[in-house]
Amino acid sequence: MTVPFLQRLNRHLADTAQIAWCERRCEGCGATLDPSFLDDYCRESCRPTEKPVVPAFVTRTPAARIHSFRLTSAARALPGTYFEDVDPLAVIEAAGWRCELCGGEIPKHVDRYDPQAASVDHHLPLALGGHHVRSNMRAAHRRCNISKNATHPDDLICREQPSPPAETDGFRLPAEGGGDTVGSGRGPTDRSDLAQRSPGTTEATDPNR
Predict the structure, then answer these.
(1) Is residue 85 assigned to a domain?
(2) How many structural domains does the chain have?
(3) Spatial separation of the C-alpha atoms in residues 209 and 206, rounded to whole Å
(4) Residue at 208 is within a domain
(5) Which among 53, 64, 48 is positioned nearest to 114, based on CA atoms?
(6) Is residue 82 part of a domain?
(7) Is the pLDDT of residue 55 over 90?
(8) Which range of residues forms the domain containing residue 85?
(9) Is the CB of residue 70 less than 8 Å from the CB of residue 83?
């Protein structure tokens, strides 16, 4: 590309950007904005109002919390699941507003759909035969609860605590070809082993003979 071409390209891009800036419209009412106006709204009434933060469980009555928690749990439960009337806020307060999955603190005044919001996890998931009883419940962040999903507790423990590698105490396993390397720490073709052998042993390996 030549210099004159790049100059024409830059002028074209600058003209296009200026035209787009002059044709801006208010995102609220659609009126044309003054080019000297930097905001995206022509007046405050066009600016959208922020949605109020609704914390999980805190703003509802105990009866409403129990009823809503029971309904949402029943949608995932298997036939024959036993249900108790449990206030989810009581479960969270009993845990000291701390997630019992990751151990982190649960903030009280974030929106109920925030990843850090409070929720109640069933230790043995309802979809795997768990019951909706207080002994099967624990406090959790919303994101931790969603991440756990319907994982069995035993599978969760195995995933969080991987088994350590097998200890060999300095010994190597035998090679697949049959070479015995146990206790030597070196392979069957290690030259340091060959050098330490007797002359009678190395004569058979001399290619010049």
Answers:
(1) yes
(2) 1
(3) 6
(4) no
(5) 53
(6) yes
(7) no
(8) 62-160
(9) yes
